[in-house]
């Protein structure tokens, strides 16, 4: 029969040799209960993180989150120092709040690959954007050029009515270009959004009052279902209004031929955030259209610029919000927005570290 220490010692040896940094904090004694060799190597350049007090200061944001009722695991957080990037996650057993486990990994290479992927995607988006610009501005410019050439050659032959037809065509093409330039202006709005706590009940009451006439004229039924625990979000109210109105306009267009158009706006708590759902019973979209919906200049509207959803996504990203689209052709569409709650205001970047979703 082995000694009493045999099994614990075996597990200690195993955990000591794994290539993931492992630290166990004893919150009662306020001491390091366990730290394996890999954790020592990873944290050795961070001199301030060598003891219990130093580690708790470094991990304070995630440790504070872990103390909330029902929380047993934090999100992965990034620490940057010199040229390295470390990712750590904290957790604690649900039945024992005394011990907190910290898993640490060197994610430098993974982080660099992610940055390369992001840069590649950005270049592709920019390429697509400029390709769209050439097309969207080139067409009306060619039309204006042709109209002017015809007028220049026949100005003495055409009647005032015929000249007016060409002038109206030129004016129409200029209007298209103005709309496109206005979209680009909106694209650069709210570069630094000023987020504050927004009461979604008050927000939508104000918005419904603003859109009341339009809703009545289109005979659209609107249902607001805002859950009591999902009514306060940390957003820029102006930017959110722009986003929601854009999504409403899309929904109005999708329900143009529906006998009983209905728009449902609901909020619900989702983990540490709020999900805001804007759903319609309109024409819906195919899987292919859903995939392309957020691409620059992609539009199914005869007079659309294809920048509406691009602007929406950008504005939301600047507020640490997300958006996704679900749709079934012939049944309707739903935009699901993920908004930070007022409780997430504490997640400000700390010196030398940034949060990673």
For the structure shown, list the relevant keywords.
Beta-Lactamase, five-stranded mixed beta sheet, 45% helix, alpha+beta, Heat Shock Protein 90, six-stranded antiparallel beta sheet, disordered C terminus, Helix Hairpins
Number of domains: 3
> Mind telling me which CATH architecture of the largest domain this is?
2-Layer Sandwich
Question: What is the C-alpha radius of gyration, as a whole number of Å?
Answer: 28 Å
Uncertain residue ranges: 1-5, 344-357
Which homologous superfamily in CATH is the superfamily of the largest domain? Histidine kinase-like ATPase, C-terminal domain
| CA-CA gap between termini | 48 Å
Strand sequence of the main sheet, in spatial order? 2-1-5-4-3-13
Shape: elongated
Proportion in β-strands: 15-25%
Query: In this structure, how is the largest beta sheet organized?
Result: 6 strands, antiparallel
Report helical residue fraction: 40-55%
Q: Tell me the total number of β-strands.
A: 13
Query: Can you tell me the CATH class of the largest domain?
Result: Alpha Beta
CATH topology of the largest domain: Heat Shock Protein 90
Q: Which H/E pattern describes the elements?
A: HEEHHHEEEHHEHEEHEEHHEEE
Mean pLDDT: 77
Structural class: alpha+beta
């Amino acid at each position: 029969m082995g000694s009493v220490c045999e099994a614990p010692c075996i597990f200690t040896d195993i955990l000591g040799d794994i290539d993931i940094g492992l630290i166990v904090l004893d919150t009662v004694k306020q001491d390091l209960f366990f730290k394996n060799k890999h954790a020592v190597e990873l944290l050795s350049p961070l001199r301030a993180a060598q003891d219990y007090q130093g580690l708790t200061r470094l991990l304070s944001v995630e440790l504070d989150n872990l103390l909330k009722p029902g929380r047993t695991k934090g999100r992965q957080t990034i620490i940057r120092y010199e040229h390295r990037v470390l990712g750590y996650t904290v957790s604690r057993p649900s039945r024992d709040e005394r011990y907190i486990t910290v898993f640490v990994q060197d994610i430098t290479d993974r982080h660099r690959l992610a940055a390369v992927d992001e840069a590649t995607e950005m270049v592709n988006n920019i390429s697509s954007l400029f390709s769209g610009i050439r097309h969207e501005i080139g067409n009306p410019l060619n039309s204006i050029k042709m109209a002017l050439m015809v007028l220049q050659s026949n100005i003495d032959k055409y009647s005032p009515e015929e000249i007016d037809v060409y002038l109206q065509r030129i004016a129409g093409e200029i209007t298209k270009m103005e709309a496109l330039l206005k979209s680009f202006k909106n694209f650069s709005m709210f570069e630094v959004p000023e987020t504050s706590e927004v009461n979604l009940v008050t927000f939508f009451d104000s918005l419904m009052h603003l859109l009341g006439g339009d809703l009545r004229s289109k005979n659209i039924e609107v249902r607001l279902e805002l859950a009591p625990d999902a009514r306060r979000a940390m957003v820029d109210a102006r930017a959110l209004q722009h986003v929601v109105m854009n999504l409403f306009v899309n929904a109005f267009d999708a329900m143009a031929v529906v006998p009983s158009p209905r728009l449902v706006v609901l909020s619900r708590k989702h983990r540490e955030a709020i999900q805001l759902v804007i759903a319609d019973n309109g024409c819906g979209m195919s899987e292919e259209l859903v995939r392309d919906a957020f691409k620059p200049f992609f539009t199914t509207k005869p007079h659309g610029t294809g920048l509406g959803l691009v602007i929406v996504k950008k504005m939301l990203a600047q507020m640490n919000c997300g958006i996704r689209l679900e749709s079934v052709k012939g049944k309707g569409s739903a935009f699901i927005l993920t908004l930070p709650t007022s409780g997430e205001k504490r997640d400000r970047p700390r010196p030398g570290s940034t949060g990673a979703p």
